[in-house]
Amino acid sequence: MNNLFKKIFIALLIVMLLLAFSKSYSTLNIDNLSVVVAMGIDVSDKNNLAISFQFTNPSSVSESGTSEQSPSIIYTVDASSISSGINLINTYIGKSINLSHCKVITFSEEFAIQGISDEIYTLINDTQIRPSTNIVISKTSARYYLEQSKPLFENLITKYYEVFSASSSYTGFTSNATIGDFFDSLICHSCEPYAILGGVTNNSTEYTGTTNSENDSSTKSNASSLSGQSTAENTGLAVFKDDALIGELNSIETLCFSIIRNNVDGFLVSVPNPNKANSYIDLHVTPLISPKVKVNIINGTPYIQLDCTFTGRIYSIESGADYLDANMLTQISNSCNSYLESILTKYLYKTSKALNSDINGFGKSARKNFLTLEQFYDYNWREKYKDSFFKVDVDSSIRSSSLLTES
Amino acid sequence: MENSKISAAEAISIVFGIFVTYTLVALPKSMLESTKTATLINIIYVGIIALFITFLIYKLLIKFPGDDIVDIAEYLGGKPLKVFIGIIFIFYFLFSSSILLRNFCECLKIVYYPMTSLIFIILAFLIAICVTLHHRFSSIAKVNLLIIPLVVISIIFLFIANIENFSFDNIFPIFGDGLFNTFITGLGNLGAFGGITLLYFLPPYLKEPQKMKKVYLTSVILGTIYIILCVSIILFMFVSLMYTNQIMPLYSAARHIEFGNFFQRLESIFLLIWILQMVCYLCIISKISMSTFKKITNIRDEKPMIFVFALLIFAISLLPKNYAISKFIEDYIYHYMVIIVSIFLGVFLLILAYLKKRKKKELNTNHEQSI
Questions:
Q1: Residues B126-157: pLDDT tens digits?
Q2: A126, B151, B222, B252: which one has the fewest Cβ atoms less than 10 Å from its Cβ?
Q3: What is the rounded distance in angstroms from the CA atom of residue B119 to the CA atom of residue B97?
């Protein structure tokens, strides 16, 4: 009798728990979800925000085979907040939106200028949003940017978004800016947020540089010489002061940012040819160790020293070149040093004097100069950064060319 | 009792398990909140104090071989004091474990079971402990010994996998909110060493009482190192956590782990391991509470009390009206409870009992000399 009672009790418990947990299961069931792969937020004429959701239809891939692309679907809704926008879309499509696979959140430039902290706080509060989700500031409307983001080499748009920021590690012309880092920088007292600068190719852009290599390095989203089937591009960086967009970095400036943050494994750079005026040599440069940053406070002003060490190989070669000559390699190394020092110094003064935004996070190193947080807060690093002075030392060692050492 | 004897390793894992369980919910964050960037220095400082207290507890307990604090209370003040101390410790164990369970379940609900009532999530844990508590204490200790390495490995993995996200400069300014805050008000972080409470109850369970010193000191040293590891992960990773509040900071850190495009979303594995640890913790605490209850009421069998204790945990865990209240209890009230009950009350009681014993011994010696 006792055993029977026990069995009935256990059976009742199992049924009760099954019923209790089934609601969460059915809510998160794949059949009831519509998976958002990217989100766009624009300024709206009718309401606070115009929120665009980009969906993919995975079943269409399996139906059409692997050779065809899966079409993406974009819905836009005008709403007072992100959550009410999600609610409206849920009602419209008859499924619950799931942001677990949202890889990109795009804000239009117009919207980001006004400040995006409320949206960032809301998104980071959502358990479905991953901290690794990329943040893009689009030069065009966010919806147009999403429409133009087409995966040409992958079948799924999700895969495209998964890998689109990977080039940051070998070009340095963009950065893997995530919402997790953005949120952390937003709250941090010693750094400022940044995001990927996105845009849509505009072939009518005029270039102001005098040589080709300068043109290459001044490229940024919406101002590049690219043309192709997919017109969305992600070159450069959007710089924030607190939560508001205040400026942009072009490709070479973004490279400097990536070098200082140690986000780039290797990169190509064109340095002046020491033996030929108005001529450039392309080098493939690799950081040897992570850059050393030292911040001293001298007479109340930040004095920032940056030491970078690189090794590299000559990438471009011209006829008659002799890259087995030690003197030649030293000259190229020196040219590389001067060039990198000059672009890094120019970039650093731009972030401090022109933008007054410590996206490099030098403030974290500056905290060593203070014993207590109160002293650091009183110093007000975020405002003092504009008074900073920089000393950049680059030590590069160009070892050889690649396959050809003489021509 | 002979069947309930545990080895030195099992005893260490039980005490260490208490340290571990509290770090899974909000402990690293509440420590960071009180001492900010000076938290690592503070943990080393309070860790040394905790070690000193542990040594003192050991030195005093060794004078009463095989007795736990309830037996010692009886020696000191007779049955009334025994019952009083027993009730205080039972209340402490049930209250702290219920609030911890509530907060852990709140986090589980937010992350995985948004549509499930909190009651059922708590109930799932209680069913697990009701089943487990039918086994001997030594069996529970053995299972705990199996789970603890998994939890430690998960935390070490969390540390290593997140190293690329670390900013070691986050440790500066080295004194956080100042010397007074780090070394005086920061003493409140002694509340993180709640595992010390179990030391008062271990002597009757030890298979090898001669290893008591080793068990006590090792478990507190390991606990300190473990807390340092957990706080380091949070301190080096998130500047934001000092100024905002996130549920389960270690879970937040686990969400950042990614190995390329293939190995992502590993946090569910972490949570699974941590759920097992939570069940082990609840079982140990309930078992100790039940045997204390048995001791003060002189009941023959403690098994019928399993459901009573489970229901008590269930009821207490549902007492806080919302997460804000239960979190406040865990972050502040629990810390002070540890300091008052585990450190002051326990040590004070042991010192008084020791003085009584010494006085008694002196009286006996004088009496013998006079004869």
A1: 988 998 998 888 999 999 999 999 999 999 99
A2: A126
A3: 16
Do B176 and A372 lie within an 8 Å CB cutoff?
Answer: yes
* Domains observed in chain B: 2-370 (1.20.1740.10)
3-state secondary structure chain B: CHHHCECHHHHHHHHHHHHHHHHHHCHHHHHHHHHHHHHHHHHHHHHHHHHHHHHHHHHHHCCCCCCCHHHHHHHHHHHHHHHHHHHHHHHHHHHHHHHHHHHHHHHHHHHCCCCCCHHHHHHHHHHHHHHHCCCCHHHHHHHHHHHHHHHHHHHHHHHHHCHHHCCHHHHCCCCCCCHHHHHCHHHHHHHHCCCHHHHCCCHHHECCHHHHHHHHHHHHHHHHHHHHHHHHHHHHHCCHHHCCCCCCHHHHHHCCCCECCCECCCHHHHHHHHHHHHHHHHHHHHHHHHHHHHHHHCCCCCCCHHHHHHHHHHHHHCCCCCHHHHHHHHHHHHHHHHHHHHHHHHHHHHHHHHHHHHHHHHHHHHHHHHC
* Inter-chain CB proximity B244 and A374 less than 8 Å: no
Inter-chain touch A21–B127, beta carbons under 8 Å: no
B37 interface with A at CB cutoff 8 Å? yes
For the segment A37-52, the average pLDDT, to the nearest whole number, is: 90
pLDDT score recorded for residue A205: 47
Q: What is the CA radius of gyration of chain B?
A: 21
Q: Do the beta carbons of residue A235 and residue A251 sit within 8 Å?
A: yes
β-pair partners for A73: A55
The answer to whether the CB of A107 falls within 8 A of the CB of A142 is: yes
Please answer yes or no on whether A127 and B238 come within 8 Å at the CB atom: no
Domains of chain A and any CATH numbers: 24-261 (no CATH), 266-407 (3.30.300.210)
Cβ distance B173 to A376 less than 8 Å, yes or no, reads: yes
DSSP class of residue A71?
Answer: P
The whole-model pTM stands at 0.89
**Mean pLDDT computed over every residue of chain A:** 84
Could you give the 3-state DSSP secondary structure of residue A37? strand
User: So what's the ipTM on this one?
Assistant: 0.85
For the cut 60, the answer to whether the pLDDT of residue B87 exceeds it is yes
> Are the C-beta atoms of residues A135 and A108 closer than 8 Å to each other?
no
The whole-angstrom separation of Cα A322 and Cα A52 is 56
Task: Please name the member of B123, B240, B265 whose beta carbon is closest to the beta carbon of A183.
Answer: B240
pLDDT tens digit string along A306-335?
999 999 888 877 766 666 677 888 888 999
Q: Residue B149: count other Cβ atoms within 10 Å of its Cβ.
A: 10
B256 touches chain A (CB under 8 A): yes
User: Residue B48: phi, psi to the nearest 5?
Assistant: -65, -40
- How far off is chain A from B211, nearest CA to CA, in Å? 42
